[in-house]
Amino acid sequence: MVDQVRFPPSIGGSGKTYTNDANPETGVYGGGHRINFFPMLADNLAGIGYVAKYAQAIDGAKANADRAEDAKGYVEALADQYKVNILEQFKNKATLVSGFANHDFRLYDGLRTNKVADTSLWTIERATTGTYVDATGKIRTAAIDEPRYTYDPETGVPSGFLAEGQRTNLLVNSENLLAATYTVIGDTNIQSENVYSPNDAVFRIENLSAASGNYIRSPEITVTSTPGDSYTFSVLCKEGTSGAFSLRTIALGGTTQDHFHEFDFTTDSFFRDGTGTAKAKKLSNGWYLISAKISLLSGNDKVQVRLSSNAVDNTRPGSCYVAYCQIEKGADPSSYIKTTATQVTRAADSITKDVIYEVSERGFTIFCEYTPLVSDGVRFAISKGDFNNTLYVSNNLVVLRINGVMLMSAVNNEQKGKSKGLQCLCKTGIAL
Q1: Residue 113: which of 357, 427, 355, 365 has the closest Cα?
Q2: Phi/psi class of residue 214: alpha, beta or left (left: φ > 0; alpha: ψ in -120 to 50)?
Q3: Residue 344's beta-bridge partner residues?
Q4: Tens digit of pLDDT for each residue in 14-56?
Q5: Fewer Cβ within 10 Å of end Cβ, the chain: N or C?
Q6: 344 and 337 in contact (C-beta within 8 Å)?
Q7: Are the C-beta atoms of residues 210 and 275 closer than 8 Å to each other?
Q8: Is 402's pLDDT higher than 80?
Q9: Is residue 49 within a helix (H) or strand (E), and if so which, with residue range?
Q10: Distance CA 316, CA 313 (A)
Q11: DSSP 358-420
């Protein structure tokens, strides 16, 4: 067998093939080397030169990319600094300052700007209790009308004032998976666990075998049968011995919808997502908020969920921890609402203030930072006392209504004409 090597033009070579025999055209033995050695050496050098040039191009591209990334970081840092400086100038001259994240509240009284308490500046109302995340990542309950200052559940950084629209948890016994409303199917064990968690009602679900048909089934929940309506299931989960958590969302009546979602704790991602709507938000101490949307089709009038600590294909038997189950109408999960034997509604948050010296009839400026928490919308309104003289801002939508005439500018036309609820994190508010 004759060994051979070819130097293709794609790497700068001549395309010629060289062999280890005495072939006078291609060989390097029996005198062939006198003819072919230097051409072969030239092909070698051409290939080396090509590789060196290509490597240099790669290095140059990387250097350019590094320079671009450095420039991007510089510009962003400079922009943030300008923003901070501008905000400081606003704060020094502002007639109203509401730093919800850092609890800095100031109000102009006609003569000077004074530091004040949040509740003396704003009227904060909510007709029910509501939950929020504290600085340690635990879920706490705020009393009626108590403002909810919440924190990032992973970092503990203050997020600001939590304001949400009205929501109802339709799933009863949200903190008691041992209640008779839940059904344990197959070779599944469930028990209450006393482990550190975002709450005090944690359950360990364990699939004891790799056989199919092992899960916990929620009751069937009657819902508004309107095609296009969305419902969201959410639950807190933590890794056990299986490394997996499986969720099955079902819409019954009419055309049944049956979708599987499988979260892999080892990769922090969904291995399966039947509807493409499943989300996982990392919390503290190894916990995740897992959610999935259930969109109704014609005839769907009931929803149900099934929970399992095994993989969908039953290859990962073992355990996981769950807490705080919730099913609510809407495309995104809201803050947790505890239920026992009946469904529970959390009222909407309202934060208002009657302005006196804070704005001028000749013109004023308002600066506000907020983070929308749901796709349903967020709304800020400035009114002259009635709906017909109002300016309000919601997701991608600015509406100005003067003397009953509405002028509208929308980025997303789907927002037109919809009544929006307030659901957001307010961080900073300044009025000049």
Answers
A1: 357
A2: beta
A3: 169
A4: 778 777 777 777 776 665 555 666 576 666 666 666 666 666 6
A5: N
A6: yes
A7: no
A8: no
A9: helix 33-93
A10: 8
A11: SS-TT---EEEEEEE-STT---EEEESSSTTSEEEEETTEEEEEETTEEEEEESSGGGTT---
Looking at the DSSP bridge assignments, the partners of residue 318 are: 207
Residue with tokens 């993989």: 311
Q: Which tops the pLDDT comparison, 409 or 90?
A: 90
Task: Tell me the residue type at 151.
Answer: Y
Q: Tell me the Ramachandran region of residue 222: left when phi exceeds 0, alpha when psi lies from -120 to 50, beta otherwise.
A: beta
- Structure-token pair, residue 158: 């203050």
The full DSSP string for 244-303 is EEEEEEEEESSS-EEEEEEEETTTTEEEEESSS--EEEE-STTEEEEEEEEE--TT--EE
Q: Residue 244 — pLDDT band, cuts 50, 70, 90?
A: very high
Q: How far is CA 239 from CA 11, 196, 206, 287, 312, in A?
A: 51, 13, 11, 8, 16
| Pairing relationship of beta strands 158-163 and 221-222 according to DSSP bridges | unpaired
Q: How does pLDDT run across 163-199, given as a tens digit for each residue?
A: 888 999 999 999 999 999 999 998 888 877 655 555 5
Residue 228 C-beta-side C-alpha neighbours within 13 Å = 0
Per the document, the length of the chain is: 432
CB distance 163 to 394 below 8 Å: no
Cα–Cα distance for residue pair 279/263, rounded to 1 Å = 9
The answer on pLDDT for 408 being more than 50 is no
Of the candidates 262, 263, 257, 323, the residue with the CA atom closest to the CA atom of residue 294: 257
Q: Kindly give the pairing relationship between strand 130-133 and strand 139-142.
A: antiparallel
CB 302 within 8 A of CB 294: no
CA angle, residues 25, 30, 34, in degrees to nearest 5: 60
CA distance 114 to 345: 38
Tokens standing for residue 260: 């599987």
Map tokens 């007639």 to a residue: 95
Domain spanning 167-346: CATH 2.60.120.260 = yes
Give Rg (Cα) of the chain: 32
